[in-house]
Design goal:
This protein has about 200 residues and is an alpha/beta fold. The protein contains 7 helices and 6 strands.
Length: about 200
């Protein structure tokens, strides 16, 4: 059974017997909460489920946004430890468009910070943004992306290169380091990603 995708009857039987989501997920290694919902709804599995999107209010038709602001954050409990990435996207008027969270498993805080940034920047690109303002409370990451600091940690080099590549796709990018208290919404999403294993 290990590594195989369960059939719907098999999955429902385990759920009925075990009565615990955690035990059901443990019974099928590699199956995430997102996959479980997909199985129940009849959707095909993906090896990398997309980040959980939390609508910020009434759902509007997706339309391109010329300029977006992305607040990103990452959290790791134990460093390394259970980690989550979070991002919140704002339009030009400062209205929240989307809240994103992704559970990362066991990672360091710095890896989680980069993953939060990548989460938000990818989504901004999907929404058609041409200009981007990035807010993060990781001074290390912001200074590395702006070229003020070198990237010495091997675990961050690939993430740094990916972030720079994504940022080059925008016509204009502004990187801003903000105090932690001014990044509360992204911080909330990174911690929710851990708590809820988004």
């Amino acid at each position: 059974m290990s590594g195989q995708r369960p059939s719907l009857p098999e999955l429902l039987r385990v759920i009925a017997e075990e009565e615990s989501l955690e035990r059901t997920l443990a019974r099928f290694p590699g199956l995430s909460r997102t996959d479980l919902v997909g199985v129940l709804l009849g959707r095909p599995a993906s090896s990398h489920p997309p980040p959980r999107v939390h609508p910020a209010g009434p759902v509007h038709a997706v339309q391109p946004h010329r300029k977006l602001r992305v607040a990103s954050d990452g959290a790791a409990r134990g460093n390394p430890g259970p980690a989550g990435a979070g991002a919140v996207l704002f339009d030009e008027q400062g209205r929240v468009l989307e809240r994103l969270g992704k559970f990362l498993g066991r990672q360091t805080n710095n890896v989680a910070e980069y993953q939060g940034l990548l989460l938000g920047v990818r989504r901004a690109h999907e929404l058609g943004a041409e200009e981007l303002e990035v807010l993060a409370d990781s001074e290390l990451m912001i200074r590395q992306l702006s070229g003020a600091y070198q990237v010495r940690a091997p675990a961050l080099r690939e993430l740094h290169a990916e972030a720079l590549s994504l940022l080059k796709a925008f016509r204009k990018v502004k990187l801003v380091h903000v105090p932690r208290e001014q990044n509360a919404e992204a911080d909330e999403m990174s911690n929710r990603a851990i708590d809820e294993q988004l």
